[in-house]
Amino acid sequence: MRSLRFISAEALVSYPLLAQGSLDSVAHNLYPLLFKASYLLEQAEVTRAVLGCWPLEEFRLAALLGPSTDHPEDLRDRACRTCLEACVRGLADHVLQGGSRWLRVADLTGIRDVQVQRCPCRRALGRWGRTELLARTCCELQAEPCMGRRSTEVFADLFVTEGNFEVVVQALQPSGPAPLQVRCLSFRADSLSPGQLLHVLGLAKPGALRKLEVVHNVRLNAGHVQQLLAQVGFPQLVSLTLPTRAFDIPPTSTPLPEGEDSLLSSIAWELSQMSRLTELSVAFSTLTGKIQTLLSPLGTPLRALDLANCALNHADMAFLADCAHAAHLEVLDLSGHNLLHLYPSTFFRLLRRASQTLRALTLEECSIADSHVGMLILGLSPCRQLQEFRFLGNPLSARALQRLFTALCELPELRRIEFPVPKDCYPEGTAYPQDELAVSKFDQQKYNAIAEELHAVLLRANREDIEASTPVFGSFDPDIQETSNELGTFLLQAFKTALENFSRALKQVE
């Protein structure tokens, strides 16, 4: 329930001119209420004016938009373009005005990007857009005369690609006084060269970085990864994501004797120096027989581990099942491995050891068939803390899914299931794993009927709290959605370059 104070704040900001003219008369402790009310009602001019006159030393966006005693609604999932642009413009106004009011810290982190915006304008400003807006504002302010002004530290989550690389570098490396000093807490990189990545990370104050995501179109090999970790250094890093094939041997390296990988050992040693590292994602890197080398040096137990499509063998699974990390895992992704056919005993031993902590498990395209459902139910039964279970892309029938759903209802904390399109909905003889074209060609009417039956299983077990769905092309990714045009251009350029190289190679052969 909203408090009388918040209702009064809403009433005031509903009249923008009156609100802006009254700010000098408002008590300092009411500014947070005015800010949230103006954000809620999308009164952008009031939002900008409130921040421009902000009388407190700190402005923390996530805390201001989160639930409070005055207004219990959580607005952190409103990445509203209108309001966020007003926030950054208001921040610029504040540092330009100077005066006795000094905003020491502006924390713009904590916004959650979701698929459907609940704000009135329905227009989102994603992480890439927020990065570019802040960087361009910093560059504009660097050109302003600012003699004697104190700077404001701005904490931000940066998303850098080829499209905004230059402006971000300029913002992070001012040639003179900078009214806004950007401090990066999390960093996502896509469609950059290794040299660009190394350069911009060196400017982003990596000593304070907590989360680093290097994804998709950053072409790293093991040599680049070792150089990045050794030269830049990330003492506070909690979460690290590396791109596809990040552990491939550099093409110029001398082939090593079988069983030796000095680069991987060096990378593992660098990771072991990160005493806060608890989340590691190395999906789509070939790590056959190398998991022990990579993970055993880590002194801090991992809470999240993504080893999807890493071509693990029995020795890798045996190490995972018995290592110290297993008893601490909260999030685990082993997609792309034939777990229940090749090494069921070690996989179930891993589940038993992780059962007290495991909250999210992903087993997509693991060749789980009807004959494996009984074993899978036994393996999952100890996982009483499991909240999310994703197993898309497995060849399971409607009958097997019903049996599995009945067992999943016994897990008290489970809230989300992502299940595959039943194989009954595809033509007989359909091969697995499926490509994107094949996965979309199923009998929608038959699927709808089976999905209703599966939801009926949940209802009969009084588990309406479980959300079950089939995102055929994967879950919504706001970062990919936002930069799809740029990444498409990048891929076309990469394809063109590959064709040119191939053509040159053919000419040399001739």
How are the SSEs ordered, and which strands pair?
Blueprint: H1 4-13, H2 16-22, H3 31-40, H4 44-52, E1 58-60, H5 61-65, H6 81-97, E2 105-107, H7 127-142, E3 152-160, H8 165-172, E4 180-189, H9 194-203, E5 211-214, H10 222-231, E6 239-241, H11 262-272, E7 279-281, H12 291-295, E8 304-306, H13 314-322, E9 331-333, H14 339-342, H15 344-354, E10 360-362, H16 373-380, E11 388-390, H17 398-408, E12 416-418, H18 436-439, H19 444-460, E13 467-469, H20 478-509
Parallel strand pairs: 1-2, 2-3, 3-4, 4-5, 5-6, 6-7, 7-8, 8-9, 9-10, 10-11, 11-12, 12-13
Helix pairs in contact: 1-3, 2-4, 3-4, 4-6, 6-7, 7-8, 8-9, 10-11, 13-15, 15-16, 16-17, 17-19
Characteristics of this structure?
about 500 residues, alpha/beta, 13-stranded parallel beta sheet, 20 helices, repeat
Low-confidence stretches: none
* Number of E strands: 13
Approximately how much helix is present in the residues? 40-55%
Number of helical regions: 20
Q: Largest sheet, order of strands side by side?
A: 1-2-3-4-5-6-7-8-9-10-11-12-13
Global mean pLDDT:
91
The coarse silhouette is globular
Q: Report the end-to-end length measured between terminal Cα atoms.
A: 78 Å
Largest sheet: 13 strands, parallel
Question: What portion of residues belong to β-strands?
Answer: 5-15%
Cα-atom Rg, whole angstroms? 26 Å
- Structural class by SSE content: alpha/beta
